[in-house]
Every structure is written in C-alpha cells, then in structure tokens.
Amino acid sequence: MHVTLDAVIVAVTDDRPKVLTVSAPAGSVPRLPTGVLREDDRTLEAALRRFVVDETGLDVGYVEQLYTFGDSERQPGGERLLSIAYLALVREAAPSADAAWVDWYDLYPWEDHRSGRPPVIPELIAPTLDAWVGEARSAPERSRREERAHVVFGLGGVAWDGVRVLERFELLYETGLLEESTARRSEAVRSLALQGDHRRIVATALGRLRGKLTYRPVVFELLGETFTLSQLQELVEALSGARLHKPNFRRLVEGAGLVEATGTTAPTGGRPAALYRFRRDVVRERPRPGVGTPWTRG
After folding, report:
1. Mean pLDDT of 213-225
2. Topology of domain 2-106, per CATH?
3. Level-2 CATH architecture, domain 217-297
4. Which of 52, 25, 21, 24 is nearest to 36 (CA)?
5. Between vectors from CA 110 to CA 106 and to CA 113, what angle results, nearest 5°?
6. pTM here?
7. Of 120, 200, 247, 282, which has the fewest CB atoms closer than 10 Å, so is most exposed?
8. Beta-carbon contacts of residue 284 (< 8 Å; ≥ 6 apart)
C-alpha cells in the first residue's frame, strides 16, 4: 500500500474562491499539491506543511485533516493508493512557477448560484438526469433515482442544499457528465478537470467548508486583520455560492458577536466604510459561532 498526503489549499480574492494546483507534464491536467511522509516528519501535518512549501513556495496557516481516500480503483493495477487529504485556508499569494491558482467554480460551474441557477443545470444536467431516471429497469429503482436527482440538485420543487457538493459531483460522475466519468456521455459539462480523483477531493473540501460556515468562524482565516462588513459578506457569498440579504447578514454577524468595530474606516470611493475585526472571545461564549446557512434561502 502506497500512502500520500494531498493538500486542498483555498483562498478567496475579489469574490473568487480559488484552489492551488501544481502543473503537470504537457498534455495532462493539473493536480493538487501532493507529498509523502518522511522519517524525519514529526507529524502528518508537519509533513504537509513541508511539501506544500517545496511544491508551491507558500506557507499555509489554518490546516485540518479532511478525509482519507482509499478506493481500490484509485490506482488501477499494482499497489493500493491511500491518500490522506487536508484542507488549508490562506490569503492568496504568488506561488512558485510550477503552481497556479484556479477558480473552484471552473471546477464546479453548477455550484455558483450568486447570479441565479447556473444555465448548465436546466440546459444539460436536469435533462440528462431525467433520462437517467427513465433508464431505470424497475419502478423502485426509478423512484430512488428520481429522489436522488431531486434532492441532490434541488429539482422537482426540492430546495438547493449547498453542502451536498460531493453528492452532486458523484452523481454527475455516475451519469457520465464529467470528463473523468468511466462511462462518459456524448456531452459532458464543460469544466476544469484535475488529475486522478483530485476533483473529488476538492469537492469534499468545498462541502466541508460550506458546512463549517454554520458553526465555525473559519471565514475569518481568509480575511486580513481588519475588514469591512461588505468584504466579509462577499467572502461568505463566494464560499457558499449564494447571494445574501445585506441588512439581515449584518444583523446576524453583529448580533452574534462575531465582529467588533475598530473605530477606523476604509476609503471606498464614496462614503468611508467602517472597519471591523474578528472578536475571538466569541469561540468561548458560543458553541457554534458561524455565519448561517445562506443556501437554504433559495
């Protein structure tokens, strides 16, 4: 069995969420930063931080273990490949020449609902899923497929759930709508692919991060020491793929005690905007200090 560590490194700049990738040989797709554990690495996290610097030239801040991937088909033939994936949050910086930031909505264009439902859903995904439901060999299987398609993609009157990122990716894979699909249909969703199952790993990270918006103040790891409430809202919208009601968002953030005013302002081209900072005492005062679930509002 061969074991690797994979890093999903996320930054948000100018309302665009991004993932750091490493260049692959000419003619192949990029991959996530990947390394192996050495005898002199004291911990898995220390190994991760070491090889991320080696491969990308960047130091990472917030890091958490994401998931372990070990399906037998990850590496056809030979030894089994086990991958321990980590999620890291950073503020964007210029990586080394062999690394590049990619917009994660180029990886998953069906996930960005900030301007309404993406056209790819009604134009390609929904009709393909309808056909997939119709291909079922029995009435019970047809019912299960229909329920799965509706719940995962918010079809048939079911509300969209932003956390179901991995379920959507796996359904598109299964129905042949991705470049990676083993039984690909004649028309796949136009999107950026990654090496092996790395796009599945990133989908797992995106779902985890969206879920954490509800109970952990992780968004503040992606901001500077001070920020405006508009910058905070744009960041949450970028991560969730949903637009927020500005007055309600501000009432939620201020009422929950997540931020405190610094007494200073930032120029905006018009009226100066008040600057805030994350109020760290909130993690001791509340068991779930998050910013809500914006995707449940449609």
Report:
1. 88
2. Nucleoside Triphosphate Pyrophosphohydrolase (3.90.79)
3. Orthogonal Bundle (1.10)
4. 52
5. 105
6. 0.90
7. 247
8. none
